[in-house]
Amino acid sequence: MRGGLIVLAAALALGACGGAASNEVTLLNVSYDPTRELYEEFNAAFSANYKTPDGKTVKISMSHGGSGKQARTVIDGIDAQVVTLALQNDIDVIARESGKIPADWRTRLPGNASPYTSTIVFMVRKGNPKAIRDWTDLARPGVSVVTPNPKTSGGARWNYLAAWGYGARQFGGDEAKIREFVASIYRNVAKLDSGARGATTTFTNQGTGDVLITWENEAFYTLTELEQGAFELIYPSLSIKAEPPVAVVAGNARKDGQLQAAEDYLRYLYAPDGQRIVARHFYRPIDPSAADPADLARFHEIEMLSIDDPIFGGWDQAQPKHFDAGGLFDQIYQPAR
Amino acid sequence: MRAAAQDGTRRTSWRRRSVLPGFSLTMGYTLAYLSLIVLIPLAALAIRSASLGWTEFWAIATDPRIVASLQLSFGAAILAAVVNTVFGVIVAWVLVRYRFPGRRWLDAAVDLPFALPTAVAGIALATLYAPNGPFGAFLEGVFGLKVGFTSLGVVLALIFVGMPFVVRTVQPVLEEIDRETEEVSATLGAGRLRTVTRVIMPGLLPAILTGFALSFARGVGEYGSVIFIANNLPFQSEIAPLLIVIKLEEHNYAGATAIATIMLVISFAMLFVINLLQAWSRKWFGHD
Description:
heterodimer, A: alpha/beta, D-Maltodextrin-Binding Protein, domain 2, 2 domains, 8-stranded mixed beta sheet, 4-stranded mixed beta sheet, 15 helices, about 15% strand, globular, B: mainly alpha, MetI-like fold
C-alpha cells in the first residue's frame, strides 16, 4: 500500500517535471552464483518480448555472488528491484530486516515463489574409481569430499541438508546417529570453499577430492563446459528438492513503472518462454510442458525430500538448528574432548 | 607578532617553528583525510562491537575456534614477514648493487603481487601446490610436505602478497648508502662480513623494520588469496578474516566486528612495538 503511494508520488513528480522520463525502465536483479548463464539468456528474451503498459522497454542489470552476501547487500541498501536467490531464508532475512519485501512473498508466485527447482547430486572422476554410489560412500574412510561451506554458500546448505535427510531416512529418529553420519561426511572434506563455483574449480581444475557435492544444474554445466568425459554425474538414491526462490523488492521499486515491470519480469519466468530457457540451463522447470523434451530427458527421476518435510521442519526451523552460530554444523568441527 | 610569539612559546611551541608556509592548511587536510579514510570507519567498528556486552565479547575472544584462527592469522603473517624480510633484502641488494641484463624487467616484476587481484594469485598458487598440482605432488612425494590446503599454504599466500614491501622499502635506502663508506671500512681493515654487519646493516635496519611491519600488516588482513589455497576447515587452516565473513553471513554484525576489533588491537600493539624498535635502532646506531 505504502509502496504504491510512493510509486504514485514518484509518477506525479515525474509528470510535474514535464514527462522527462526516458522510454526505458531499468531493473536490477540480485542473484546468486550459478545463475549467471541462465539470466543472461532470460534477460535478453524478456527485453526483446516485453513492453510496459505505456510502451517502454525494460533493461535488466545483474549482480551475482554468494546468496547470503547478496541478501546483505540488499539489506544494506543496494537498489535492487528483484532478488533471485538460493535460499528462502535469505529472502526472509531481507523481508524481516529491511521491510522492503512483504512478509507473505512466498505466496505471491506459484510453487512457493520458485519458478525452477534443482537437486543435489555427486560429481566423480571418470570411471568412478572410488565406486561412489550413494551418501554412505561419502562417509567411508579414505574418500575425499569437496563441498562449499554452508555458512557462506546457499547451495552448500542444500548439500548438508540432503546428507542429513538421507541419514534421517537410514537411522529413523535417532538424531545422535544422524549427526555422527553427517559429521563423518564432513570430516572427509578436503576443502570448504566459500561458494559453489569455487568448489567446482577446486574439484575440476585443482584435481582435489574424489567426489564433489553440488547442484544438479552446476554439475550439468560443468559436464558440458569442461573437458568432455573427464567427470561423471552420480544421482544418489535420495536427495533434496532445492527451491531457489524469487521475489520483487517492492520497497525499491520507486520509479515510474518499476513495480509493474519487476512483477511481469518474474511472471515471465513462469511463462512458456521462461520455462524453456530454465530447462535449457539445467534447472528443473515447474511447468515442464513448454520445455524441450530433450532438455527434460537429462534429468533423472529420483526421490527428493522437501525442506518442509518434518525431518527439516521448513527453513524457519532448519536454519537455526543447523546453521546458526553454535548450531549442529558448527558442532561437527568442535575438537573432541 | 613578536609579543604573541614570546608569550605563546609554551602554548603553541609546535607551531612557532614552522618555517614553511601553509601549515594550517595542510594539517587541516591531513586530519580531515585521516579521519575520513581511517579514523571514522575504525571508530564505527569499535562502537559496533561495543554493542556487545563485555561477557559476550570475552566469550568471542576466548572461543577456541576463534583463538585458533587468530593464532593462524598472526603466526602465518609473522612467518611470512620473516621470510619476506630475509629474501626481500637479498632481492633489493641484487637489484641495487649489480648490473645484469633483464634487471629492469626483474625490478618491475617485484610489483606484480600489488597489481594482481589476490583471488587470481590464490587460484594460481592452489593449482600449483594442490596435492595433485605439479609442485604439490613433488613436495609431497619427495619431502612429505603438504602445502596446498594446509596452514603452510596460508603462509605461502601471505609471502606472495607481502613480497614487494621489503624490497621497495629497502631499495631506495640501499641506493642512498655511499659506496665509499664501504671502501673506507675495507681500507680500515674490516672484513666483508664486518662491513656488512657493522656498516651497511645499521643504516638499513629502520627500512627493513618498516618493510617487515608492512608485510606483516598486509598478511594479517589478507583474505582473497588465502581462501583458495587453504582448506578453510576449522582448527586446520581457517583464518580470522574468514571467520569474520562467516559471522557476517550469519547476519551477526556485532560478532564480526568483535573479531575485527581483537585483530585491530593485536595488530596495533605489534606495529607499535616495531615502531619502538625502529626508534631504538636509529638511536643506537646513530642514524637519523
